Amino acid sequence: MDIRTTGVHVYELQTLLYYQNQPNNTVNDELRETLCGFGLLRQPVVIVGVYIPPGATAKDALCELYSAISRLQNTNPGGLFIVAGDFHVNLKSVLPKFHQHVNFAMRGANALDLAYTNIPSAYRAEPRPHLGYSDHISDCFEHTDWQMFREAATYSTTTDLEEYTSSVTSYIGKCIDDVTVSKTITTRPNQKPWMTAEVRALLKARDSAFKAGDKAALRKARAKLSITNYRTTTPACDSDASFPDALNHFYARFETQNSVAARKTTPPPDDQVLCLTAADVRKTLRRVNPRKAAGPDNIPARVLRECADQLTDVFTDIFYIS
Predict the structure, then answer these.
(1) How far is CA 56 from the centre of its chain?
(2) Which of 232, 281, 289, 307: CA 20 to 30 A from 168?
(3) Model confidence over 106-151: pLDDT tens digits?
(4) Which residues neighbour 111 within 8 Å (Cβ) at sequence distance 6 or greater?
(5) What dihedral do alpha carbons 167, 172, 176, 179 form, nearest 10°?
(6) 280: DSSP letter
(7) CA atoms within 13 A on the CB side of 142
(8) pTM score, two decimals?
């Protein structure tokens, strides 16, 4: 069941009893022994995988989960229910008989991947190190079929480079939006650029020393403030008014409408063809400065650097076509 209105995705799998009774299907021996110890091979086993995006409403997500799991419980009474996935809601608030078995943090202080069952102490979770540099975005790119973007942009024997590139960058941006959390920073007119965190800490220490009547600490705080070069000089503006127009024309060229389809031109016989390898592209992506601003494609530099292994093949293919 795919519930798109609330951003909740519930995928119901076959019961283990039904699965093992089908021809050519096998059950893992270790799993069989574990379930036989609970006597569960005679009862249906229902596995529910859940993913709730960060932007979804927790209340609506719990309502959808309760409706789906309650219907499955009525259909399979007495069965083992395993609810696992990446979600940030407390399932016990709507299903109090379910037990959560993951009791340690996975990212910072948050436990993102949870596992609920209707049997107490049925599972014991243990922390494991990350697999390499695996994370949500890199995992998303790792399991992406990049070839489908080229096939969708190929007409007869010609690949539309603009459509191919646009679909790939839009998909990367969509994955970034699904995983990352946007943070809004408010700036005010009286917030001067020289008021950094260091200067604010010094001002706070000065005020605290003044209120406490500590003359020695007050003199020390004032001395630190006096040697702090927090008032920077304002650079003089260029008197040439054509310079801003030149910059505007330069950067606006990316947004101009171009009705001519991009085509791969045949180089002259005496021209040396530029050759790129996947190793060259990977090496270049890993050298991207993560502090640099994103370009016209709006892909953050940190994503290009951290996910270089996953993005190398598709970018190499785009470079070759262009």
Answers:
(1) 15
(2) 289
(3) 666 667 678 888 888 777 777 765 543 345 788 788 888 899 999 9
(4) 102, 103, 104, 105
(5) 100
(6) H
(7) 12
(8) 0.42
